[in-house]
Amino acid sequence: PSVDSFGEIGSTLKFAKRVLTVELGAIYSNKESREI
User: Fold this and answer.
1) Which one of 7, 16, 26, 35 has the minimum C-beta count within 10 Å?
2) Cα–Cα distance between 21 and 15 in angstroms, integer?
3) Which pTM value belongs to this model?
4) Does the pLDDT of residue 1 top 80, yes or no?
5) How far apart are CA 21 and CA 11, in angstroms?
6) Number of domains making up the chain
7) In the predicted structure, residue 32 carries a pLDDT above the cut 70
8) What one-character-per-residue DSSP string does 1-36 give?
């Protein structure tokens, strides 16, 4: 990829990572509350 699109890829990865973290957090908290 060109240098221009490199920044775009970086922000996309950051976004994907954030979404993944949110989803994992939701799954984890759901699991925790179900055991109580």
Assistant:
1) 35
2) 10
3) 0.56
4) no
5) 15
6) 1
7) yes
8) --HHHHHHHHHHHHHHHHHHHHHHHHHHHHHHHHH-
Average confidence (pLDDT) over 11-31: 93
User: Do 9 and 2 meet the contact criterion of CB atoms below 8 Å apart?
Assistant: no
Q: What domain range is 7 assigned to?
A: 1-35
Between these two residues, 19 and 5, which has the higher pLDDT value? 19
CA dist 19 to 6, 10, 12, 35, Å? Answer: 20, 14, 11, 25
Cα separation, 12 vs 26, whole angstroms: 21
Question: CA–CA separation, 19 vs 16, rounded Å?
Answer: 5
17-36 mean pLDDT:
87
Return the residue matching tokens 């221009």. 4
